[in-house]
Amino acid sequence: MEKAPASRLEPFFVFLLLVLGLVICVISWGYGFGSLRQPGPGLYPFFVGMAIAVFSLFILISELRSGTREPVLDKEGAGTLALMTLTFCLWILAMPRLGYVVVSLLATYAFCKIMKLEVWRKPLAVSAGTALFIYALFDYWLYIDLPRGILE
50 near 19, Cβ under 8 Å? Predict the structure, then answer.
């Protein structure tokens, strides 16, 4: 595959991610970490911000060292990304009306078909299993109310 010249914008965006990770760390520091028995509200965001900053730093160093890189997305990959993004957006929009379980079933089926899973049985089995697991996890084990939609 032919090497493409490195884009000037990509290191800039990676640098913005690095700054965002550091800002998350600084802000979450003020919330407090709590203790091991009772974690504070700043513990999780601090480690997420730290992970964003560290991984961004590695990517930034790698980008700056190499002058050429492989293309990230080809035409087919860009179409797949666009369809997945559209599916996520429709998932969020349809959730209050149809309910979390039904939308999860439909979205998981759509993801399986977008990723070209064979025939219709495997995607249906994956999406039905995912929807049942989500229902059991949130409704029975964790007692978290999710939008029920048409199942009310």
Answer: no
User: In angstroms, rounded to a whole number, what is the distance separating the alpha carbons of residues 82 and 119?
Assistant: 22
The pTM (predicted TM-score) of the whole model is: 0.57
C-alpha distance across the termini of the chain, in Å: 53
Going 128 to 129 to 134 to 139, the CA torsion angle's sign is positive
pLDDT in tens, 51-108: 999 999 998 888 778 766 665 667 787 788 889 999 999 988 998 888 888 899 999 9
Label each residue of the chain as H, E or C: CCCEECCCHHHHHHHHHHHHHHHHHHHHHHHCCECCCCECCCHHHHHHHHHHHHHHHHHHHHHHHCCEECCCCCHHHHHHHHHHHHHHHHHHHHHHHHCHHHHHHHHHHHHHHHCCCCCCHHHHHHHHHHHHHHHHHHHHHCCCCCCCHHHC
The CA distance from 124 to 58, in Å, is 39
Per-residue pLDDT reduced to its tens digit, 10-38:
778 889 999 999 999 999 988 888 877 78
